[in-house]
Specification:
Length: about 325
């Protein structure tokens, strides 16, 4: 491990106890910063309501840490929107945001568009499929941003149990993202959960970053933030245990391919072939191939969008 990373781990890796909630709240009140929480959601009616309810109870009613909760629905066919709204979130449908640019499927697309419908100086992203959710996920990762002006982006780190075994989740992280980061961006080797969907950042940083529209958004954001603001502006906080719905092997394969493509684009901006991933499923006549495009479209920095600039000037 690089000496720089060892130093970073000792100075930019924290636990929840390092910043008690009363200290975080005092910093927010002193600096006047506002906090938005965004949940990207697609068919998450079973969990999204509980997450919203916990945040509203703990961090809006009991203490005024969070200023708004926005659920961006990317085309759910279940009751995700109704459940989220009933729990107290403002629900916005992806296709209603910036309609002049047709939306494409993908988590990164939703996160990018959320910048247009939120106001917070600090934006906190939380996946909508978490179970047994604790508001520590929010207070823990926004804490450094509110108390330390030198920090621009904070990732949550946690255990990810799989099938009852501790620490076995995050298979794409261990098999794809971590090797890529260690080999090509070793300064980022200290991140425990580089692909985790729980992180917070200053709007002033997010609006300058391109957003891969799909699964590559977390890796792309880390790499681009490293180049834009440097390692010492990035941090991580241990928030305990993350429980969520695990995907099957083929879905993980598609995720890994998109992440590799995101890395590839950052390693060599140039004329690259349009990649595809062929996977196999057993059918009535034997193994059947299914080919999926993994070309990673990216959205430009939000500061390049006229509607965003107009909103800031208003």
């Amino acid at each position: 491990m690089l000496e720089e990373v060892e130093r970073w781990l000792s100075t930019r890796t924290w636990s929840l106890t390092d910043r008690p909630l009363h200290r975080v709240l005092a910093a927010k009140q002193r600096t006047g910063q506002s906090v938005s929480v965004v949940l990207p959601a697609l068919n998450e009616e079973a969990t999204v309501g509980d997450i919203v309810a916990v945040i509203r109870h703990d961090l809006m009613r009991q203490v005024p840490l969070v200023d708004e909760i926005v659920v961006v629905d990317s085309g759910s066919t279940d009751r995700t929107s109704e459940v989220a709204a009933a729990a107290g979130a403002r629900v916005v449908h992806r296709d209603e945001i910036l309609p002049r640019i047709p939306a494409v499927p993908g988590k990164g697309e939703v996160l990018w568009r959320s910048l247009l419908v939120t106001r917070g100086d600090v934006v906190c992203f939380i996946d909508a499929d978490l179970r047994e959710f604790s508001s520590d996920f929010v207070s823990g990762i926004v804490g450094p941003l509110l108390t330390d002006p030198d920090v621009d982006l904070v990732k949550a780190m946690y255990d990810r149990p799989l099938g009852g075994a501790a620490g076995q989740g995050g298979r794409v992280t261990e098999l794809m993202a971590r090797p890529l980061l260690n080999m090509h961006w070793p300064q980022l080797a200290g991140f425990v959960q580089p692909l985790g969907g729980e992180y917070a950042a200053r709007r002033s940083l997010l609006e300058q970053l391109p957003f891969p529209v799909g699964y590559g958004v977390e890796l792309g954001m880390l790499v681009d933030a490293l180049h834009l603001v440097g390692l010492d502006a990035l941090a991580q906080v241990d928030v305990g245990v993350r429980k969520h719905r695990h995907q099957d092997g083929q879905a993980l394969g598609r995720m890994a391919a998109a992440i590799y493509r995101t890395a590839q684009l950052r390693l060599a901006r140039g004329h690259l072939g349009r990649p595809a991933l062929t996977q196999f499923e057993r059918g009535p006549d034997g193994f059947e191939p299914h080919t999926h495009s993994v070309d990673t479209e990216e959205r430009p920095p939000m500061t390049d969008i006229a509607e965003y600039a107009h909103r800031r000037a208003a």
